[in-house]
Amino acid sequence: MSHSDAQSLASISTPKASVLPSSSFAVSKRAIPNRQAIALISDHGDPAAEIGREEAGGQNVYVRQVGEALAKLGWQVDMFTRKSHPDDPAIVQHSLHCRTIRLQAGPESFVPRDQLFQYLPEFVEAFQKFQAKEGTNYPLIHTNYWMSAWIGLQLRQQSNIQLVHTYHSLGAVKYRAVAEKPAIAETRLAVEKQILEQANCIVATSPQEKEHLRSLVSQQGYIEVIPCGTDIDKFHVMPQSEARVALGFQPHEKIVLYVGRFDRRKGIETLVRAFAQVKQQLEANWATDLDTLILNPSLPLPTLRLVIVGGSDPAQSDGQERQRIEQIVRDLGLTDQTLFAGQIGHDRLPLYYTAADVCVIPSHYEPFGLVAIEAMACGTPVVASDVGGLKFTVVPEETGLLVPPQDGTAFANAIERILTDDIWVRKVRRQASARVQQNFSWTGVAVQLSDLYRRLMAQSLLAPSAFTALDPMAATPENIATAAVRAENLVKAS
Protein backbone atom coordinates (compact mmCIF):
# COMPACT_ATOMS: atom_id res chain seq x y z
CA MET A 1 0.00 0.00 0.00
CA SER A 2 1.35 3.42 -0.96
CA HIS A 3 1.56 6.36 1.42
CA SER A 4 -1.32 8.05 -0.43
CA ASP A 5 -3.41 4.90 -0.03
CA ALA A 6 -2.64 4.90 3.68
CA GLN A 7 -3.76 8.50 3.95
CA SER A 8 -6.97 7.60 2.15
CA LEU A 9 -7.63 4.85 4.66
CA ALA A 10 -6.94 7.21 7.53
CA SER A 11 -9.37 9.77 6.18
CA ILE A 12 -12.37 7.42 6.13
CA SER A 13 -15.03 9.31 8.02
CA THR A 14 -16.15 8.00 11.36
CA PRO A 15 -19.15 9.14 13.39
CA LYS A 16 -18.82 11.43 16.33
CA ALA A 17 -19.12 9.87 19.76
CA SER A 18 -22.78 9.63 20.56
CA VAL A 19 -25.15 8.27 23.14
CA LEU A 20 -27.12 5.26 22.02
CA PRO A 21 -30.77 4.44 22.71
CA SER A 22 -31.48 1.52 24.99
CA SER A 23 -32.61 -0.68 22.11
CA SER A 24 -29.11 -0.59 20.64
CA PHE A 25 -27.31 -1.82 23.75
CA ALA A 26 -25.19 -4.82 22.65
CA VAL A 27 -25.11 -7.76 25.02
CA SER A 28 -22.90 -10.76 24.28
CA LYS A 29 -24.89 -13.88 23.53
CA ARG A 30 -22.15 -15.91 25.19
CA ALA A 31 -22.09 -13.81 28.36
CA ILE A 32 -23.06 -15.60 31.53
CA PRO A 33 -25.09 -13.74 34.17
CA ASN A 34 -23.15 -10.76 35.57
CA ARG A 35 -20.28 -11.31 33.09
CA GLN A 36 -20.36 -8.97 30.10
CA ALA A 37 -17.92 -9.44 27.22
CA ILE A 38 -15.64 -6.54 26.29
CA ALA A 39 -12.82 -6.31 23.75
CA LEU A 40 -9.31 -4.95 24.18
CA ILE A 41 -7.53 -4.38 20.86
CA SER A 42 -3.73 -4.26 20.62
CA ASP A 43 -3.02 -4.97 16.98
CA HIS A 44 0.79 -5.03 17.10
CA GLY A 45 1.36 -5.64 20.83
CA ASP A 46 0.53 -9.30 21.45
CA PRO A 47 -0.62 -9.69 25.09
CA ALA A 48 0.54 -13.32 25.03
CA ALA A 49 4.01 -12.53 23.64
CA GLU A 50 7.19 -13.07 25.61
CA ILE A 51 8.29 -9.72 26.99
CA GLY A 52 11.56 -8.36 25.62
CA ARG A 53 11.32 -9.72 22.08
CA GLU A 54 10.78 -7.52 19.03
CA GLU A 55 7.76 -5.23 19.54
CA ALA A 56 7.07 -6.75 22.97
CA GLY A 57 7.26 -4.28 25.81
CA GLY A 58 5.19 -2.10 28.08
CA GLN A 59 2.04 -2.11 25.93
CA ASN A 60 1.93 -5.91 25.88
CA VAL A 61 2.26 -6.00 29.66
CA TYR A 62 -0.41 -3.33 30.09
CA VAL A 63 -3.03 -5.07 27.95
CA ARG A 64 -2.35 -8.53 29.41
CA GLN A 65 -2.37 -7.39 33.03
CA VAL A 66 -5.40 -5.14 32.61
CA GLY A 67 -7.25 -7.95 30.85
CA GLU A 68 -6.56 -10.51 33.54
CA ALA A 69 -7.40 -8.06 36.33
CA LEU A 70 -10.68 -7.07 34.66
CA ALA A 71 -11.61 -10.74 34.32
CA LYS A 72 -11.16 -11.13 38.07
CA LEU A 73 -13.59 -8.24 38.54
CA GLY A 74 -16.33 -10.02 36.61
CA TRP A 75 -15.83 -9.21 32.92
CA GLN A 76 -15.36 -11.60 30.00
CA VAL A 77 -12.23 -10.13 28.41
CA ASP A 78 -11.24 -10.88 24.82
CA MET A 79 -7.89 -9.35 23.79
CA PHE A 80 -7.35 -9.09 20.03
CA THR A 81 -3.98 -8.88 18.30
CA ARG A 82 -2.40 -9.73 14.94
CA LYS A 83 -1.03 -13.23 14.40
CA SER A 84 2.67 -12.73 13.67
CA HIS A 85 3.99 -16.31 13.59
CA PRO A 86 2.51 -19.46 11.99
CA ASP A 87 3.23 -21.55 15.09
CA ASP A 88 1.41 -19.18 17.45
CA PRO A 89 -1.97 -20.59 18.53
CA ALA A 90 -5.00 -18.64 17.34
CA ILE A 91 -6.38 -18.41 20.88
CA VAL A 92 -4.47 -18.34 24.16
CA GLN A 93 -6.65 -18.88 27.23
CA HIS A 94 -5.00 -17.02 30.12
CA SER A 95 -7.79 -17.74 32.58
CA LEU A 96 -11.38 -18.91 32.44
CA HIS A 97 -12.63 -15.48 31.41
CA CYS A 98 -9.61 -13.88 29.74
CA ARG A 99 -8.06 -14.85 26.41
CA THR A 100 -5.85 -13.53 23.62
CA ILE A 101 -7.27 -13.94 20.11
CA ARG A 102 -4.79 -13.70 17.23
CA LEU A 103 -6.35 -12.59 13.95
CA GLN A 104 -5.03 -13.13 10.43
CA ALA A 105 -4.06 -9.71 9.06
CA GLY A 106 -1.16 -9.71 6.66
CA PRO A 107 1.68 -12.25 6.69
CA GLU A 108 2.13 -14.56 9.68
CA SER A 109 5.54 -13.10 10.35
CA PHE A 110 7.11 -10.09 12.00
CA VAL A 111 6.21 -6.82 10.29
CA PRO A 112 7.71 -3.52 11.51
CA ARG A 113 5.13 -1.22 13.04
CA ASP A 114 5.56 1.43 10.37
CA GLN A 115 4.51 -1.11 7.73
CA LEU A 116 1.44 -2.56 9.48
CA PHE A 117 -1.14 0.05 8.54
CA GLN A 118 -1.83 -1.53 5.14
CA TYR A 119 -3.10 -4.70 6.86
CA LEU A 120 -5.57 -3.01 9.21
CA PRO A 121 -8.61 -3.47 6.92
CA GLU A 122 -7.90 -7.23 7.06
CA PHE A 123 -7.85 -6.98 10.85
CA VAL A 124 -11.25 -5.27 10.88
CA GLU A 125 -12.69 -7.96 8.59
CA ALA A 126 -11.19 -10.78 10.70
CA PHE A 127 -12.58 -9.21 13.88
CA GLN A 128 -16.07 -9.06 12.40
CA LYS A 129 -15.86 -12.66 11.20
CA PHE A 130 -14.81 -13.77 14.68
CA GLN A 131 -17.76 -11.96 16.23
CA ALA A 132 -20.17 -13.59 13.78
CA LYS A 133 -18.71 -17.04 14.37
CA GLU A 134 -18.78 -16.70 18.15
CA GLY A 135 -22.13 -14.95 18.29
CA THR A 136 -20.50 -12.25 20.40
CA ASN A 137 -21.10 -8.52 20.39
CA TYR A 138 -18.98 -6.09 22.36
CA PRO A 139 -20.78 -3.01 23.75
CA LEU A 140 -17.39 -1.52 24.62
CA ILE A 141 -14.01 -1.71 22.89
CA HIS A 142 -10.79 -0.39 24.44
CA THR A 143 -8.12 0.24 21.80
CA ASN A 144 -4.39 0.58 22.45
CA TYR A 145 -1.96 2.55 20.24
CA TRP A 146 -2.92 4.57 17.17
CA MET A 147 -3.36 1.70 14.70
CA SER A 148 -5.78 -0.03 17.04
CA ALA A 149 -7.59 3.31 17.29
CA TRP A 150 -8.13 3.26 13.52
CA ILE A 151 -9.56 -0.26 13.84
CA GLY A 152 -11.90 0.88 16.60
CA LEU A 153 -13.13 3.83 14.57
CA GLN A 154 -13.97 1.54 11.63
CA LEU A 155 -15.79 -0.94 13.86
CA ARG A 156 -17.88 1.84 15.37
CA GLN A 157 -19.08 2.81 11.90
CA GLN A 158 -20.78 -0.57 11.65
CA SER A 159 -21.96 -1.27 15.20
CA ASN A 160 -23.01 0.68 18.27
CA ILE A 161 -20.12 0.59 20.72
CA GLN A 162 -18.55 2.72 23.39
CA LEU A 163 -14.97 3.41 22.30
CA VAL A 164 -12.16 3.91 24.84
CA HIS A 165 -8.58 4.56 23.79
CA THR A 166 -5.11 4.55 25.40
CA TYR A 167 -2.28 6.03 23.30
CA HIS A 168 0.83 4.42 24.88
CA SER A 169 2.87 6.68 22.60
CA LEU A 170 2.08 9.97 20.88
CA GLY A 171 3.39 10.69 17.41
CA ALA A 172 3.20 14.42 18.10
CA VAL A 173 5.79 13.93 20.85
CA LYS A 174 7.77 11.07 19.33
CA TYR A 175 8.53 12.89 16.10
CA ARG A 176 10.08 15.81 17.94
CA ALA A 177 12.96 13.52 18.91
CA VAL A 178 13.73 12.15 15.43
CA ALA A 179 15.67 13.83 12.64
CA GLU A 180 13.44 12.48 9.88
CA LYS A 181 9.79 11.47 10.13
CA PRO A 182 8.77 8.10 8.65
CA ALA A 183 6.42 7.96 5.67
CA ILE A 184 3.53 6.92 7.93
CA ALA A 185 3.89 9.98 10.18
CA GLU A 186 1.14 12.14 8.69
CA THR A 187 -1.30 9.24 8.71
CA ARG A 188 -0.51 8.52 12.34
CA LEU A 189 -0.94 12.13 13.40
CA ALA A 190 -4.29 12.32 11.61
CA VAL A 191 -5.60 9.15 13.27
CA GLU A 192 -4.35 10.22 16.70
CA LYS A 193 -6.23 13.50 16.41
CA GLN A 194 -9.35 11.76 15.09
CA ILE A 195 -9.54 9.29 17.98
CA LEU A 196 -8.87 12.10 20.45
CA GLU A 197 -11.87 14.00 19.12
CA GLN A 198 -14.24 11.07 18.59
CA ALA A 199 -13.64 8.45 21.28
CA ASN A 200 -16.13 8.27 24.14
CA CYS A 201 -13.18 8.46 26.51
CA ILE A 202 -9.40 8.75 26.29
CA VAL A 203 -7.46 7.09 29.11
CA ALA A 204 -4.30 9.07 29.82
CA THR A 205 -1.75 7.27 31.98
CA SER A 206 -0.41 10.41 33.67
CA PRO A 207 -1.43 14.02 34.33
CA GLN A 208 1.38 15.07 31.98
CA GLU A 209 -0.14 13.08 29.13
CA LYS A 210 -3.58 14.53 29.83
CA GLU A 211 -2.19 18.06 29.79
CA HIS A 212 -0.51 17.43 26.46
CA LEU A 213 -3.66 15.92 24.95
CA ARG A 214 -5.67 18.92 26.11
CA SER A 215 -3.44 21.09 23.94
CA LEU A 216 -4.41 19.06 20.88
CA VAL A 217 -8.21 18.97 21.19
CA SER A 218 -11.12 21.10 22.35
CA GLN A 219 -11.94 21.12 26.05
CA GLN A 220 -15.14 19.14 25.55
CA GLY A 221 -13.27 15.92 24.74
CA TYR A 222 -13.37 13.57 27.72
CA ILE A 223 -10.00 12.45 29.11
CA GLU A 224 -9.58 10.47 32.31
CA VAL A 225 -6.27 9.77 34.06
CA ILE A 226 -5.83 6.12 35.02
CA PRO A 227 -2.17 5.10 35.47
CA CYS A 228 -0.49 1.89 34.44
CA GLY A 229 0.24 -0.62 37.17
CA THR A 230 2.44 -3.49 38.20
CA ASP A 231 1.96 -6.89 39.79
CA ILE A 232 2.79 -6.08 43.40
CA ASP A 233 2.63 -9.77 44.31
CA LYS A 234 5.46 -10.44 41.86
CA PHE A 235 7.41 -7.17 42.07
CA HIS A 236 8.16 -6.51 45.72
CA VAL A 237 11.05 -5.98 48.09
CA MET A 238 13.25 -8.99 48.84
CA PRO A 239 16.81 -9.37 50.19
CA GLN A 240 19.32 -8.13 47.64
CA SER A 241 21.82 -10.78 48.71
CA GLU A 242 19.40 -13.57 47.77
CA ALA A 243 18.76 -12.08 44.33
CA ARG A 244 22.48 -11.76 43.66
CA VAL A 245 23.15 -15.35 44.65
CA ALA A 246 20.35 -16.50 42.34
CA LEU A 247 21.84 -14.55 39.42
CA GLY A 248 25.51 -15.18 40.15
CA PHE A 249 26.38 -11.55 40.96
CA GLN A 250 28.95 -10.71 43.64
CA PRO A 251 28.17 -8.80 46.88
CA HIS A 252 30.84 -6.14 46.20
CA GLU A 253 29.53 -5.27 42.73
CA LYS A 254 27.72 -2.00 42.09
CA ILE A 255 25.10 -2.94 39.50
CA VAL A 256 23.57 -0.48 37.05
CA LEU A 257 20.52 -1.97 35.31
CA TYR A 258 18.65 -1.28 32.07
CA VAL A 259 15.46 -3.17 31.17
CA GLY A 260 13.74 -2.73 27.82
CA ARG A 261 13.85 -3.07 24.07
CA PHE A 262 16.81 -2.18 21.89
CA ASP A 263 15.59 0.96 20.17
CA ARG A 264 17.48 4.20 19.59
CA ARG A 265 14.66 6.12 21.23
CA LYS A 266 15.28 4.17 24.43
CA GLY A 267 18.58 6.02 24.88
CA ILE A 268 20.80 3.02 25.68
CA GLU A 269 23.80 4.75 24.10
CA THR A 270 23.41 7.62 26.57
CA LEU A 271 23.45 5.12 29.43
CA VAL A 272 26.55 3.31 28.16
CA ARG A 273 28.49 6.55 27.81
CA ALA A 274 27.32 7.70 31.24
CA PHE A 275 28.40 4.38 32.71
CA ALA A 276 31.89 4.89 31.26
CA GLN A 277 32.12 8.24 33.08
CA VAL A 278 30.91 6.72 36.35
CA LYS A 279 33.39 3.85 36.08
CA GLN A 280 36.32 6.18 35.50
CA GLN A 281 35.45 8.41 38.44
CA LEU A 282 34.32 5.88 41.04
CA GLU A 283 36.96 3.23 40.49
CA ALA A 284 39.62 5.90 40.85
CA ASN A 285 38.01 7.06 44.10
CA TRP A 286 37.69 3.53 45.48
CA ALA A 287 41.31 2.73 44.70
CA THR A 288 42.49 5.75 46.72
CA ASP A 289 40.03 5.44 49.62
CA LEU A 290 42.60 5.04 52.39
CA ASP A 291 40.00 4.63 55.16
CA THR A 292 38.50 1.59 53.48
CA LEU A 293 41.88 0.14 52.56
CA ILE A 294 43.17 0.48 56.14
CA LEU A 295 40.01 -0.54 58.05
CA ASN A 296 38.98 -3.42 55.76
CA PRO A 297 42.10 -4.59 53.93
CA SER A 298 40.62 -8.06 53.31
CA LEU A 299 37.49 -6.78 51.55
CA PRO A 300 37.55 -6.65 47.74
CA LEU A 301 37.24 -3.19 46.24
CA PRO A 302 33.83 -2.40 44.76
CA THR A 303 33.50 -2.96 41.04
CA LEU A 304 30.95 -1.66 38.56
CA ARG A 305 28.75 -3.79 36.33
CA LEU A 306 26.29 -2.69 33.66
CA VAL A 307 23.47 -5.19 33.09
CA ILE A 308 21.31 -4.75 29.98
CA VAL A 309 18.13 -6.85 29.92
CA GLY A 310 16.09 -7.25 26.73
CA GLY A 311 16.55 -8.02 23.06
CA SER A 312 15.33 -10.27 20.31
CA ASP A 313 16.38 -11.74 16.98
CA PRO A 314 19.73 -10.31 15.76
CA ALA A 315 18.26 -10.16 12.22
CA GLN A 316 15.50 -7.79 13.30
CA SER A 317 15.67 -4.09 14.05
CA ASP A 318 16.28 -4.42 17.78
CA GLY A 319 19.03 -6.95 17.03
CA GLN A 320 20.71 -4.39 14.79
CA GLU A 321 20.49 -1.79 17.55
CA ARG A 322 21.97 -4.28 20.00
CA GLN A 323 24.92 -4.80 17.66
CA ARG A 324 25.43 -1.04 17.52
CA ILE A 325 25.38 -0.78 21.31
CA GLU A 326 27.77 -3.73 21.64
CA GLN A 327 30.22 -1.92 19.35
CA ILE A 328 30.02 1.21 21.51
CA VAL A 329 30.69 -0.94 24.59
CA ARG A 330 33.79 -2.37 22.90
CA ASP A 331 34.99 1.06 21.76
CA LEU A 332 34.73 2.37 25.33
CA GLY A 333 36.58 -0.63 26.79
CA LEU A 334 33.56 -1.78 28.82
CA THR A 335 33.24 -5.35 27.55
CA ASP A 336 34.35 -6.94 30.83
CA GLN A 337 31.98 -4.76 32.87
CA THR A 338 28.88 -5.17 30.65
CA LEU A 339 26.45 -8.07 30.64
CA PHE A 340 23.91 -8.39 27.82
CA ALA A 341 21.43 -10.64 29.58
CA GLY A 342 19.05 -10.94 26.61
CA GLN A 343 15.39 -11.82 26.99
CA ILE A 344 14.41 -12.52 30.58
CA GLY A 345 11.12 -14.11 31.54
CA HIS A 346 8.78 -11.81 33.45
CA ASP A 347 8.93 -14.18 36.42
CA ARG A 348 12.69 -13.62 36.78
CA LEU A 349 12.70 -9.87 36.25
CA PRO A 350 12.16 -9.11 39.96
CA LEU A 351 15.51 -10.79 40.68
CA TYR A 352 17.30 -8.38 38.34
CA TYR A 353 15.57 -5.32 39.77
CA THR A 354 16.36 -6.44 43.31
CA ALA A 355 19.99 -7.28 42.54
CA ALA A 356 20.58 -3.84 41.02
CA ASP A 357 21.73 -0.77 42.91
CA VAL A 358 20.04 1.52 40.41
CA CYS A 359 17.72 1.11 37.42
CA VAL A 360 18.26 3.61 34.61
CA ILE A 361 15.58 4.66 32.10
CA PRO A 362 17.30 6.95 29.57
CA SER A 363 14.41 7.11 27.06
CA HIS A 364 14.01 10.11 24.81
CA TYR A 365 10.30 9.92 25.64
CA GLU A 366 8.04 7.64 27.69
CA PRO A 367 4.27 8.17 27.98
CA PHE A 368 4.37 6.25 31.28
CA GLY A 369 7.31 3.91 31.86
CA LEU A 370 6.34 0.55 33.36
CA VAL A 371 9.97 -0.29 34.07
CA ALA A 372 10.12 2.58 36.56
CA ILE A 373 7.32 1.27 38.73
CA GLU A 374 8.52 -2.34 38.47
CA ALA A 375 11.94 -1.27 39.75
CA MET A 376 10.46 0.96 42.45
CA ALA A 377 8.16 -1.84 43.60
CA CYS A 378 11.30 -3.89 44.27
CA GLY A 379 12.78 -1.00 46.25
CA THR A 380 15.32 -0.07 43.57
CA PRO A 381 16.09 3.63 43.03
CA VAL A 382 15.47 4.94 39.51
CA VAL A 383 17.39 7.43 37.39
CA ALA A 384 15.17 8.45 34.48
CA SER A 385 14.81 11.01 31.74
CA ASP A 386 12.75 14.00 32.79
CA VAL A 387 10.10 13.36 30.13
CA GLY A 388 6.48 12.30 29.72
CA GLY A 389 4.95 10.00 32.30
CA LEU A 390 8.29 9.47 34.04
CA LYS A 391 7.71 12.89 35.61
CA PHE A 392 4.65 11.35 37.24
CA THR A 393 5.97 7.95 38.28
CA VAL A 394 9.40 9.01 39.60
CA VAL A 395 9.40 11.54 42.44
CA PRO A 396 12.77 13.36 42.44
CA GLU A 397 14.78 12.94 45.65
CA GLU A 398 12.12 10.56 47.04
CA THR A 399 12.07 7.54 44.70
CA GLY A 400 14.99 8.40 42.44
CA LEU A 401 16.25 11.19 40.22
CA LEU A 402 15.14 12.83 36.96
CA VAL A 403 17.68 14.25 34.51
CA PRO A 404 17.56 15.85 31.04
CA PRO A 405 17.21 13.24 28.28
CA GLN A 406 20.33 12.42 26.21
CA ASP A 407 22.59 14.21 28.72
CA GLY A 408 25.28 11.63 29.48
CA THR A 409 27.02 13.72 32.12
CA ALA A 410 23.77 14.39 33.99
CA PHE A 411 23.00 10.67 33.98
CA ALA A 412 26.52 9.90 35.19
CA ASN A 413 26.22 12.34 38.09
CA ALA A 414 22.82 10.94 39.12
CA ILE A 415 24.01 7.33 38.93
CA GLU A 416 27.13 8.19 40.93
CA ARG A 417 25.07 9.82 43.66
CA ILE A 418 22.87 6.76 44.08
CA LEU A 419 25.90 4.46 44.15
CA THR A 420 27.65 6.48 46.85
CA ASP A 421 25.04 8.10 49.13
CA ASP A 422 24.09 5.04 51.20
CA ILE A 423 22.09 6.81 53.92
CA TRP A 424 19.88 8.67 51.44
CA VAL A 425 19.46 5.58 49.25
CA ARG A 426 18.08 3.53 52.14
CA LYS A 427 15.32 6.11 52.51
CA VAL A 428 14.72 6.18 48.74
CA ARG A 429 14.29 2.40 48.65
CA ARG A 430 11.56 2.51 51.30
CA GLN A 431 9.76 5.41 49.65
CA ALA A 432 9.92 3.87 46.17
CA SER A 433 8.32 0.63 47.29
CA ALA A 434 5.65 2.43 49.31
CA ARG A 435 4.70 4.67 46.37
CA VAL A 436 4.02 1.70 44.10
CA GLN A 437 2.13 -0.24 46.77
CA GLN A 438 -0.16 2.74 47.34
CA ASN A 439 -0.72 3.92 43.77
CA PHE A 440 0.15 1.41 41.05
CA SER A 441 -1.33 -2.05 41.58
CA TRP A 442 -3.00 -3.67 38.56
CA THR A 443 -6.03 -4.40 40.71
CA GLY A 444 -6.42 -0.71 41.47
CA VAL A 445 -6.01 0.18 37.79
CA ALA A 446 -8.62 -2.41 36.78
CA VAL A 447 -11.10 -1.14 39.37
CA GLN A 448 -10.83 2.37 37.89
CA LEU A 449 -11.22 1.06 34.33
CA SER A 450 -14.13 -1.15 35.33
CA ASP A 451 -15.91 1.83 36.87
CA LEU A 452 -15.30 3.85 33.70
CA TYR A 453 -16.60 1.05 31.46
CA ARG A 454 -19.79 0.68 33.50
CA ARG A 455 -20.47 4.41 33.40
CA LEU A 456 -20.02 4.50 29.63
CA MET A 457 -22.21 1.43 29.11
CA ALA A 458 -24.86 2.89 31.39
CA GLN A 459 -24.75 6.06 29.30
CA SER A 460 -25.54 4.04 26.17
CA LEU A 461 -28.84 2.92 27.73
CA LEU A 462 -30.15 6.44 28.18
CA ALA A 463 -31.95 8.56 25.63
CA PRO A 464 -29.60 10.51 23.36
CA SER A 465 -31.02 13.80 24.64
CA ALA A 466 -29.72 13.06 28.11
CA PHE A 467 -26.14 13.94 27.19
CA THR A 468 -24.10 16.13 24.91
CA ALA A 469 -22.39 14.32 22.03
CA LEU A 470 -18.87 14.46 23.39
CA ASP A 471 -19.43 14.60 27.14
CA PRO A 472 -20.04 11.08 28.51
CA MET A 473 -19.99 12.32 32.09
CA ALA A 474 -22.86 14.77 31.60
CA ALA A 475 -25.14 12.09 33.06
CA THR A 476 -26.40 12.71 36.56
CA PRO A 477 -25.49 10.16 39.25
CA GLU A 478 -29.16 9.24 39.47
CA ASN A 479 -29.42 8.53 35.73
CA ILE A 480 -26.22 6.52 35.75
CA ALA A 481 -27.43 4.43 38.67
CA THR A 482 -30.76 3.76 36.92
CA ALA A 483 -29.05 2.82 33.67
CA ALA A 484 -26.57 0.58 35.47
CA VAL A 485 -29.44 -1.44 36.94
CA ARG A 486 -31.00 -1.78 33.49
CA ALA A 487 -27.64 -2.88 32.06
CA GLU A 488 -27.23 -5.52 34.76
CA ASN A 489 -30.74 -6.83 34.13
CA LEU A 490 -30.07 -7.11 30.40
CA VAL A 491 -26.87 -9.05 31.05
CA LYS A 492 -28.67 -11.42 33.42
CA ALA A 493 -31.33 -12.04 30.79
CA SER A 494 -28.81 -12.88 28.05
TrEMBL record:
InterPro entries named among the record's database cross-references: Glyco_trans_1, Glyco_trans_4-like_N
What is the protein name for this chain?
Glycosyltransferase family 1 protein
Entries under CDD domains matching the protein: GT4_sucrose_synthase (cd03800)
Q: Does the keyword Glycosyltransferase apply?
A: yes
Residue ranges annotated for the Glycosyltransferase subfamily 4-like N-terminal domain, each copy included: 57-229
Which Pfam families has this protein been placed in?
A: Glyco_trans_4_4, Glycos_transf_1
User: Keywords of this protein's UniProt record, alphabetized?
Assistant: Glycosyltransferase, Transferase
Q: Which residues form the Glycosyl transferase family domain?
A: 242-431
Which PANTHER family does the UniProt entry name for this protein? D-INOSITOL 3-PHOSPHATE GLYCOSYLTRANSFERASE, GLYCOSYLTRANSFERASE
Give any GO molecular function from the UniProt entry: glycosyltransferase activity
Lineage runs: Bacteria, Bacillati, Cyanobacteriota, Cyanophyceae, Oculatellales
